Amino acid sequence: MANIRTGRRRSPLFWLLFLLKGRLSRGVYWPAYVLIFCIQSAVVAQIMGVGQASLHGLFTAIGPFVLLASIYSTIAISVKRLHDVGYAGFLALAVLIPFLNVAFAIWVGILPGTPGPNSYGEAADVEPQ
Questions:
Q1: What distance in Å separates the CA atoms of residue 33 and residue 27, rounded to the nearest whole number?
Q2: Other Cβ atoms within 10 Å of 14 Cβ, number
Q3: 24 with 121: CB under 8 angstroms?
Q4: Which residues are within 8 A (CB) of 117 and not within 5 positions of it... i.e. 6 or more apart?
Q5: Contact 12, 100 (CB under 8 A)
Q6: Pair 87, 108: CB distance under 8 Å
Q7: Torsion sign across C-alpha atoms 87, 88, 90, 92
Q8: pTM (2 decimals)?
Q9: Of 79, 91, 93, residue with least CA distance to 121
């Protein structure tokens, strides 16, 4: 986990949500996906509250940035899940297509990963060393 060039350590949560390298098992994919979905739902619900929600003003200001970060995180976990299955990460762009994104998330979450190492690295649930 240590970055050899700078000596800094990266958080496994940062790796999970924002980096595109590595592999991710189904056991980590589903909780991460549900967490991101809940964050997106809460932000949209506050924004759609049209002044009646208690945090409407705050979420109107920062909500779009939180939604963009959560969409990127969804792509990041999907890329790592596709790597675990042995597919190229560019297929994760399917999460940007309405209605297809739900089917894609379920499909990626159901596929078994390839046992042992593949061209994307060792099978692991945490950041590769």
A1: 11
A2: 11
A3: no
A4: 123
A5: no
A6: no
A7: positive
A8: 0.82
A9: 79
- In 10 A of CB 43, how many CB atoms? 19
Cα distances (Å, whole numbers) of residue 123 to 16, 17, 35, 128: 14, 18, 23, 9
Instruction: State the pLDDT confidence band at 103, using cuts at 50, 70 and 90.
Output: very high
Q: Is the dihedral of CA 57, 61, 67, 70 positive or negative?
A: negative
3-state SS string over the chain?
CECCCCCCECCHHHHHHHCCCCCCCHHHHHHHHHHHHHHHHHHHHHHHCCCCCCCHHHHHHHHHHHHHHHHHHHHHHHHHHHHHHCCCHHHHHHHHCCCHHHHHHHHHHHCCCCCCCECCECCCCCCCC
Residues 6+ apart with CB under 8 A from 13: none
CB 86 within 8 A of CB 115: no
Pick 3 or 85 by higher pLDDT.
85
